[in-house]
Amino acid sequence: RKEVEQDPGPFNVPEGATVAFNCTYSNSASQSFFWYRQDCRKEPKLLMSVYSSGNEDGRFTAQLNRASQYISLLIRDSKLSDSATYLCVVNLLSGTYKYIFGTGTRLKVLA
Amino acid sequence: NAGVMQNPRHLVRRRGQEARLRCSPMKGHSHVYWYRQLPEEGLKFMVYLQKENIIDESGMPKERFSAEFPKEGPSILRIQQVVRGDSAAYFCASSLPLQDEQFFGPGTRLTVL
């Protein structure tokens, strides 16, 4: 079983739609969680951290369920500019910080 | 405040040559991480360094790959005797001490002919 698993997609959605991505992780020692966004052939950029209480940033909402070991990202009112690959990242503290990346979920927002 | 800088952005090598990739962390960041992304795959952790110390190299291939972060100057990822399978994007990230948020550089795309 992969340490961090994501549905690769692609998710093709119309502008204005709401779309949700899930990610599961296997190591219960995982300490912190993030969603990164990666545009084609560019570096990952932090979208948001994910907290146990859930957090929202504009059209983006992230949730963490430690008991079930999954995190989610909800995007409301999708824009064309949201088209990208969304990477689920788990920070595994086992002596040192180590990011474990999912392979990413590809989103394409259609006009 | 400049972000994480990597050079070169693109590097072409023939099989058997050496590749040197450089990473300058963000100002004030003393922790550097290297990741590799193969085509159509996710990023894979390679090595975590602090100034003059390798903290975790569990993701580094046992042969041909080495990394350093000297007291002065950028971090260097060195690949000796490159093979075609080394073709990938290599990303560097940096962080502050005791902070788990990492900031990524633009990457170096290595192509081995």
Task: Outline the fold blueprint.
The complex is a heterodimer of chains A (111) and B (113).
Chain A: E1 4-6, E2 11-14, E3 19-25, E4 30-38, E5 45-50, E6 55-57, E7 60-65, E8 70-75, E9 84-93, E10 97-101, E11 105-110
Parallel strand pairs in A: 2-11
Antiparallel strand pairs in A: 1-3, 3-8, 4-5, 4-9, 6-7, 7-8, 9-10, 9-11
Chain B: E1 5-7, E2 10-13, E3 19-24, E4 31-37, E5 43-50, E6 53-56, E7 65-68, E8 75-79, E9 88-95, E10 103-104, E11 108-112
Parallel strand pairs in B: 2-11
Antiparallel strand pairs in B: 1-3, 3-8, 4-5, 4-9, 5-6, 7-8, 9-10, 9-11
Task: Indicate the radius of gyration of chain A in whole angstroms.
Answer: 14 Å
Instruction: Name the largest protein-protein interface in this structure.
Output: A-B, 23 and 24 residues
Shape of chain A: globular
Write the H/E string of chain A, N to C. Answer: EEEEEEEEEEE
Oligomer classification: heterodimer
Find the count of extended strands of chain B (DSSP E, 2+ residues): 11
Please tell me about this protein's structure:
The complex is a heterodimer of chains A (111) and B (113). In chain A, strands 2, 4, 5, 9, 10 and 11 form a six-stranded mixed β-sheet that branches. Chain A has a five-stranded antiparallel β-sheet with strand order 1-3-8-7-6, with no helix packed on it. Chain A has 111 residues and is mainly beta. The mean pLDDT of chain A is 90. Chain A is built from no helices and eleven strands. In chain A, a hairpin with a 3-residue loop joins strand 9 and strand 10 (97-101). By secondary structure, chain B is mostly beta strands. Chain B is globular, with a radius of gyration of 13 Å. The chains are: A mainly beta (111), B mainly beta (113). Chain A binds chain B through residues 31-32, 34, 41-46, 49, 87, 91, 93, 95-104, and chain B through 33, 35, 41-45, 48, 55-56, 58, 89, 91, 93, 95, 100-107, 109.
